[in-house]
Request: fold
Amino acid sequence: MNKPKLNRRKFLLVSAVAGGGVLIGYAATRPSRHRRANDSLASDNERFVTSWIRLQPDNRITVYVPHSEMGQGIHTALGQMAADELDAAWELVDIEQAPATDLFANDAIVKGFGGELLPPFLMGLVNASALTVARIANLQITGGSSSVRYTGENTIRVAGAAARQMLLQCAADRWGAAVDECTTELSHVHHSASGRSIPYGDLAEAAAELEPPAVPVLKDRSQFTIMGRAISRRDIPPKVDGSAPYGIDAHSENMLYAALRLAPVFGAKLASVDATEALAQRGVRKVVELEDGYAVVADNYWRAKQALELVKAEFGPTENDRVSSAELAERFDSALAEDNSSRDFESGDADAALEDAQDVFEANYRVPYLAHAAMEPMNCTVHIQGDRADLWTSTQDALGIKGRVAKVAGLSEDDVTFHHSYLGGGFGRRLPFTWNVIDHATLIAKEVAMEFDAPVKTILTREEDMRQDYYRPAVHSNFKAALNAEGRVTAWHNRFTGPIQVPGAAHIPYAIPNQSIRVVDVETHVPIASWRSVDHSQQTFFIESFIDEIAHRGRTNPYQLRMELLEDHPRHRNVLQVAAESAGYGSGLPEGRALGIAVQESFGSIAAQVAEVSIGEDGRPIVHKVTCAMDCGWVVNPDTAEAQIESGIIFGLTAALYGAITIEDGRVVQGNFPDYEMLRMADSPEIAVHLVESGNAPGGLGEPATPPVAAAVANAIYILTGQRVRELPIGDRDFSTSRSLAGRI
Amino acid sequence: MATFILNGETRELDVEPEMPLLWALRDELGMTGTNFGCGIGNCGACTVHVDGNALRSCVTPVSAVEGRDITTIEGLASVAGGANDLSPVQQAWIDYQVPQCGYCQSGMIMAATALLARNPAPTDEEIDAGITNICRCGSYPRVRKAIRALASV
Reply:
């Protein structure tokens, strides 16, 4: 990137105003930003034509993407959206992550989620209500599978279209031609009547003088040349030669490294520390005491980690020192039994329907806490020098993290420089409001800065990363259903433990006349936050298993029952049909195998999955194949879409087979991969993806493939064994003693 | 003093003999392409080649590689031949768009390269047994596809 420039020059366009008076981008609300973008980032003869697009005199174009690249291919996808609207030549387009300054804050995501406040899973559960629109309008958050469907659709495409219209205008003015006689193609404006053409780069300066079009006209899908194509991702080449920088890769000759130990019982305080032995070790510079932990700072991370084990420390008692998963489970169950619940969704009269029913049955489901276990352990590098600081960390919200570090360090946000990197996995762990590590790294750097002028890289060991996470909540869910004499379901009665992070995740698409869905909030000391697909991963397992139970109870084929109850949901029916037909549902299967099916809408997309499962000789389930039909509207990049679906399925399957974080003596038991196992190559099923384009607006893709797979596998296991799976994980469960129902259903 | 040959160059380091090679590479030499994932030799993110064999550098002390030939992801292309060319495995990783977040992929590529060097045409079962690295993004189907393609060349 060019060095910041301080000389003043004319400023270019503000961003555009779309139909209906909705402000797109941000420069329209704060015109000065645009000028500042030019002042700080544009070199001589370069111009920003919108806040997201920079034209260079050599005719190259830089698209600034306000989202983090964590493997979802967002840099490429948003680059495609801008370049297509701009009629740019793809090979002349560079993509950069937008700097973490409010110049590049992005409010499309806030508007996309429908107004003033983001959903709880993006806000965090703490202090959410205290945040104002002004605060959240400064977001560069990457979450909620929102980047393409909100930022891409509402900001990046509009910016590209506006820039193209302005370039057309400039060329027409220059040639004395009418705008509608001019066309754009491959980063040039053409005038076919006179045979003239001019590269965009030559028009940048003139475009700077124009007002932006009030309502830029977006392309119709039939006009796309770059969107809709499986273009290679720009972030992949540096990821195969080791040059891609992750937050943990920040490096300098004088760097110091901190190994951190936090209170094993959440909420405990440090009581005493004896660091004598640790301080005597080679390379150790300092031992930092924190309110809830301590850190050893050394000239090499391994030295810091080794010395950390030599610190003798004690933590004070808390009221949670005896809490166990068993005790928490009892707490959840009694809360459900007391039913001091809040309304989530009600229709008809479920209680009356249960009273009147021919057949009422009940089922209790539960899933455990889960850790994120991103491959890049949590880390943060901070270098404080007087009244300013530099910051390197992998984050899903650069602006939020920068603000947080400034606050903890006691600096102004403008005096903190954030250095971007790729993320070695996010999955919700690197969203704002999960501040541990960031806070601690800043406090450590602050202490170190009193003695040393050096950046301090704080890294959690895998064990600390797993034990100091913000977990996917454990949830218990109780269901009752009523069936009439014909075996038709008349009532759906559901009580589950909260909190709700994604409103509506427990709602069902099925046409059941009487529904009562209520949530019971249960307090625990275990920190929770969002985990890929958030509430949907738990709720879809429950809902799609219990609807399967209803089908079997009523002697209906589970696929047929879903199709009947989804009469008003053609998109659901469509993906179900595609998935079922492609997977060979209802046709012959190899001996000992069965198919389970599940469908779920989340983040604007609808996924149906069919799992082909058998039981191994050791009694454990083997998942051979997962077929997924996904209606995510139209698709910007089909290959990255498929990759996200493969990824989401494996993430969900890992949880279904192996995922469990348990609590003993108030602390997390698991610490590394042998006891928090991951799906690996040998367990990885064949995956068949069918993108079902519906012509609807783009839906999310980072998360929607994760929720259905657990239920699809569990529903297949029921057919194979007659055992209903109501608790996860099941990878090590022995199903060998059970009887197959195959052929009877 | 620890001495080894790193991507063709002799390197001498004044570090403790028990320091894991991973931290010597990352913190002492600034070679950050080799990644820290678990620290116990389980996940494979830190895989490098020692005399052509895949080894997990987070549990390999520098004393165990004294005088030996070490290749990291940064050296894979030049060791394979062309100075700026990618190795066939790296190229296949691009062709099949394998990486997602990419953090595990240095180790994954080193593991796949070693597997193919000793078994140029692995079966699916041999791929399962030979690639035990963790990829949290679930790139396994593409890793398999890429290895199959390399095996059939």
About this structure: Chain A is about 30% helix and 20% strand. The longest helix of chain A spans residues 147-175. Chain A has three domains: 19-240, 247-318+378-459, 326-369+471-721. Chain A touches chain B through 65 residues (CB under 8 Å).
